[in-house]
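Case study B.
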Amino acid sequence: MTLATLLLLAAALIGIGIYGALSQQSFVMLMMGLELILNGVMLAAVAFWAFSGAGAPEGQLLTIIVMAVMAIEMAMGFALVVAVFRGKQADMTESLTGLKY
Amino acid sequence: MESMNDGIGVDIAFLLLATLAVATGWRVFRTDSMVRASFFLLVSFIAVGVIMILLAAEYLGVAMFFMMAVEMTVMALFMVMFMMNPAGLNPMNMVHQERIAIGAGIAGFLILGAMALLAVFPDQPVPADLEPVRSLGNEMLGDSMLIFESAGLVLLTTMIGVVVLSSHRGRYGAAAEGSMPPGLEPGGDPAGKPEEDEAGEGEHHHHHHHH
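Model:
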C-alpha cells in the first residue's frame, strides 16, 4: 500500500464513475456514477493526507467536506428526480429536452 | 507510519479491498437490478472505508460506513419507488453514447493514473505520535470552524431547497395540481386512472393508441 497504488485505485474509481455518469440514461444510475467519482476523490484525499501531508488535519477536513458535497448531491438529485417525475412521469435523461417544463 | 507499512498483511488486505472496490464499482453499471446496483455501490464505498481505516483515518472510515449505509438504503428505496425494473427481472442496459463514455472513462483513468505514477509527491507520512481523530476534532472546532459551520449552513440550505423542489405545488399553483398524477405524455390523461367503458369506445381507443 503506497501512495501510487492508492492513487491508481482512486483513478480507477473515478474512471468508472465518469463512464457511469456519461453513459447511464436513468437519473439515479447517473447519480451513482457521480458518487463513484466522489468516492475516488475522497480516497485520494485520505491517501495524500496519510503519505504526503505530514498528518495535517486539513487533509481529513477536506474529506469531510467532500462527504458533505456527496450528501448535498444525493439530496438535490433525488429532489430533482421527484420534481421531474411529478411533471413528466419520466426517469430518463432523454425525456428532458430543456431545463423548464 | 509503522502500522501502515507493517508487513505483508496490510498489503494483502489492501489488494483484496482495492479489487473489491473496483469490481463492485464496475458491477454497479452491469447489473440488471437497480436495487442490486445501489448495494454494489455500497460495497465499493465500504471497501474504500476499510482502506481509510488501514490508512489510520479511523474517523473518516467509520463515518463512511454510516453515511453510505444510509445513503444507499435511501437510494435502493428510490429505485423501488420510481425506477423501472428495480428487481432485475428483465435484462437491462440503459445507456447512451456508450463509446464516448467508455473513452472518457479510460482517458480519465489513464491521465490520473499517469499522474499517480509519474508525479513526484512529497514523502511526508503521518507522524507516529499523531492521534488522527483528536487532531481532526481540534481542527474542525478550532482553526477550520468557519469551514465546518459553512458546510452545516449549506446542508440546511439544501434541506430547504429539497423541500421546495419535491413538495406539492400549493400556494403558487392549483392545490390539487400535485396530487393528480401527470399524464404519461404531456397534456395527456392522468396516469393510473382506470379505463372507462372499454367496450363502448373500442374504436376510439384503437385510434388513440396509434398516437
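The first helix of chain A runs from residue 3 to 23. The remaining cases will be described in the next quarterly update.
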